[in-house]
Amino acid sequence: MNGVEMKGITKTFGHVIANQKIDFDLKYGEIHALLGENGAGKSTLMNILYGLYRPDSGTIFIQGQKCDFRSPFDAIRAGIGMVHQHFMLIPGQTVWENMILGLNDIPQILPKPEIKRQIQELSEKYCLQIDPMSFVWQLSIGEQQRVAILQMLYRKAKLLILDEPTAVLTHQESQNLFKMLTRMAKEGYGIIFISHKLDEVMSLSHRITILRKGEKVGSVLTSETTKEKLAEMMMGQKFVFSIQKQPISAGSLVFDIQNLRVRGDRGFQVIRDLSLQIYRGEVLGLAGVAGNGQQELCEALSGLRRIESGTIKINQQELANRPPRHFIKKGLRYIPADRRGVGLIPNMMVDENAILKKYWKDPISKGSFINWREVDRYANHLVRKFDITVPHVRFPVKNLSGGNLQKLMLGRELSDSPQVILAMHPTWGLDVAATKFVREQILKKRDQGAAVLLISEDIEELVSLSDRLAVICKGEIMGVIDKPQEITPEVLGLMMAGTPLKNIQKVSA
Ligand SMILES: Nc1ncnc2c1ncn2[C@@H]1O[C@H](COP(=O)(O)OP(=O)(O)OP(=O)(O)O)[C@@H](O)[C@H]1O
Ligand SMILES: [Mg+2]
Predict the structure, then answer these.
(1) Superfamily classification of domain 3-235
(2) pLDDT, tens digit, 9 for 90 and up, residues 264-274
């Protein structure tokens, strides 16, 4: 056939059956979505197609020819490209250096101008603006993704695998990506698209294959299905998307941030005179386009970044520029956007990660020793409570699927009784059921009295969870909306672009 066929693919990791006798096919010119809950085996199947893993059994055919990929190198030669769920770029190298990594037909004396010209040509053709000379560490997540896509195109891939490309993108960036993918499919590229966002899958793809617990449930034409049917196929039961929210009963001031000024990595001021107050039992949402200081704000509020001036108080205790452990002791819990870099230590085990914020406390610690029996009990308790799929708690975190990583971190942060929860993109990469679970957990903590600062780019998430909604632009607060459900997209858009709320109210008054 004209495309790729995977037949009877089975892959196990120890006792975990990640893929069981899966058949999958993709035609050139088609956008084929791959769906399934966290840990269903999507990334594994695609890593096999990309030559990163070898299947225990099963065969891959490209254009009817049987292929035996021994490494991604073989897959790249066969015209396959992959953008991974967690990018595999080298931060200390420039964009153009990353492009040629691993290619072996590059001459010893590098034709730099020629390479840069080719990159520029490709980036113009597909509207993927990027400066080939910048270092990868200087780029935002959205820009890094552009590099990863360009890298595939530069290597002349005809079959593109995108593993959750929109999990980390803003709405606008996602829309641009979809335009580009649709155009590429028309030009004859074959595209495999993994996402947990069913609306995206419904609007973008031609065909959908659903996996459940390592097995294929079926393939359907997008035009012949609905979101509800897809959710049912993924989970094996009907699913209610909406969540219940109790009326707010906010109490005393818990988290008090006054006149905060913070500098970013490049030395510029990224938070300017920012003040926010969050009360007991409320969720304050923070909306804004990515890169407007949200990341630095979170770091400052959790003690990870020094502040230039201002105050940060939890229950009236001043914490500015104190070490992170002081924040933790005062009851601050932090769910960072970067799970692998900041939230967890991938090379350590599940149980070790579970106790990172309490290993010095009784009963986990006894004198100078760790009580491993207690650690084991506690880690198993988290695994059960947060429904984390893992063979045992002495399992390295780096081998968990994306969604299970996030559940582990959430479990650690939301246990005990947090006073303040700082959550940045808490549902990135989670399947529909896990997303609902996490949102309910955050609301539960709010109902128990936590003050929550929720930073997200998902407007629907912000509106459905927040009791009040602040908007940030260039490190300043544009205003705080008291009834988020009543806000219009126009007003929100204006505020996100830098118009203060009071100016908008003046005009409409
Ligand atoms: N290298 C590995 N070693 C051990 N187990 C692994 C490894 N890679 C994946 N697994 C396990 O295989 C199963 C399938 O994982 P996979 O990453 O394919 O899921 P996924 O469908 O991509 O999930 P998500 O939506 O969370 O990204 C999981 O239970 C995971 O823990
Ligand atoms: Mg995955």
Answers:
(1) P-loop containing nucleotide triphosphate hydrolases (3.40.50.300)
(2) 887 889 999 99
